[in-house]
Write a structure and sequence with these properties.
With 65 residues, the protein is an all-alpha fold. It is 38% helix and 0% strand. The protein starts with 29 loop residues before the first helix and ends in an 8-residue tail after the last helix.
């Protein structure tokens, strides 16, 4: 992965509300339902995937003085 191509995190308008519904058949917290809904947005999913990949590769990055 090339970290020179850092993604810009998605920006949403102030007051943006995520409309989410909890699963009815199983227990699901509000937070879990919100995260599940947010990951349906492609911009959020790409941002989180990039952050996860970078976090996992942190030990392999060259150390800066």
């Amino acid at each position: 992965m090339k970290f020179r191509d850092i993604l810009k995190s998605p920006v949403f308008s102030p007051g943006h509300r995520w409309s989410f519904e909890k699963r009815q058949k199983y227990y699901e917290s509000d937070v879990t339902a919100l995260v599940r809904k947010m990951l349906e947005d492609e911009r959020v999913r790409e941002d989180q995937r990039f952050a996860w990949d970078r976090w996992r590769a942190e030990g392999q990055l060259p150390k800066q003085p």
